[in-house]
Amino acid sequence: xxxxxxxxxxxxxxxxxxxxxxxxxxxxxxxxxxxxxxxxxxxxxxxxxxxxxxxxxxxxxxxxxxxxxxxxxxxxxxxxxxxxxxxxxxxxxxxxxxxxxxxxxxxxxxxxxxxxxxxxxxxxxxxxxxxxxxxxxxxxxxxxxxxxxxxxxxxxxxxxxxxxxxxxxxxxxxxxxxxxxxxxxxxxxxxxxxxxxxxxxxxxxxxxxxxxxxxxxxxxxxxxxxxxxxxxxxxxxx
Length: 238
Known about the structure:
11 helices, four-stranded antiparallel beta sheet, six-stranded mixed beta sheet, alpha/beta
């Protein structure tokens, strides 16, 4: 579905991504983990068309994606839930979801997706007329995910959904993400610093450090790697 080969991205002469390759097959759950500054958010911005690539290719369903404008990519079925939620604070919850349904598939599937979003996050139905800016951080994250789902995507990209949330709220968000994947078969690409939880959800994980993929594999393979155990899980060598 999504295939990245040799991707490099630079900002002001500094390389944020270098020769990154990554694949998201249809219906699979892929996680990218790594420390702050590793290039995880830049990777998402390159896929969404927010930042240009210096080298490499991104393909969507076998067709080149880099030439497509950012707005076109949403119509192709790629939904990006950004870091920090970035809800439209002056709009109501309902209006935020309606903004998410702007792509063609979102408009045609709006009644079905709205029902699904409300089933996943009942608080969004209860607070439909409330301004998004008055929601709690956890509720805003639910709204941001719901807005992404409102576009009826085939790939949902989630950038640090646990950021700034209390542990119990973050766990609830992860549970909803797992439910979305299990019940809909939607392909998910997740960037996350909570490494253990993120990798446990995934079919395949990538470890990104200083703009490079340094390791990838299924959950058990990564969990058994001493580097991952020491650096990200706080465990000793296996």
